[in-house]
Design a protein that fits this description.
It is a single chain. The chain is an all-alpha fold. It has nine helices and no strands. The termini are far apart.
């Protein structure tokens, strides 16, 4: 069973790499499943065994390249390192990510914001514990987490749409400065 999973993951990765390659020269709306199958050297039917359509492949790719590394074991100690790695991943494949974020940015923004909010709920709790202000009330924690979840998502999307001119380190430092300022105000 594990071999099948590894094989399926390799096949999905192969298709994802093909999609990225094609999107460097072709807009997503002009890409077909046949194009992806041809570039990845698989049968069209193999594509449909793994994904319903190219949108599902794109979602899988974004989730696995950006969200999984960012959110896996996210905590206060590694949050900025993970954010910087996410910015670096995007900048490393700049054209692809700029094109990808244009395709379905509303759905992507809602999805990423929801996932980020879930993770920031834990981060907000940890900040409260570290500063002796835990358990103010769960609804306030939720609002703070939503603020940061949507805010980080907006910052990332805006950065990408502006051409990713600032370095990953600069973007991460700006977010860290914001968090530090908010934490300082919350502790007072």
């Amino acid at each position: 069973m594990e071999q099948t999973s590894a094989c399926a993951m390799r096949t999905k990765r192969k298709m994802a790499d093909a999609l990225k390659e094609i999107m460097n020269t072709t807009s997503f709306d002009k890409i077909t499943v046949s194009d992806i199958a041809e570039v990845s050297n698989i049968h069209r039917q193999t594509f449909y065994y793994h994904f319903q359509d190219r949108y599902e492949l794109l979602d899988w790719l974004l989730y696995n390249e950006l969200l999984v590394p960012l959110l896996n074991d996210l905590n206060l100690d590694n949050m900025y390192t993970k954010l910087e790695a996410m910015f670096a991943t995007m900048q490393g494949d700049k054209k692809f990510y700029q094109n990808a974020l244009k395709i379905n940015s509303d759905d992507l923004t809602r999805y990423v914001s929801r996932v980020a909010t879930e993770q920031f709920t834990e981060v907000v709790k940890m900040i409260g514990v570290e500063n002796g202000i835990e358990g103010i009330d769960s609804e306030s924690d939720k609002v703070i987490a939503e603020f940061f979840g949507y805010g980080i998502t907006g910052v990332v999307m805006s950065w990408a749409s502006r051409g990713m001119k600032e370095s990953p380190a600069v973007m991460t430092q700006r977010i860290q400065n914001l968090f530090n300022s908010v934490e300082a105000v919350a502790v007072k």
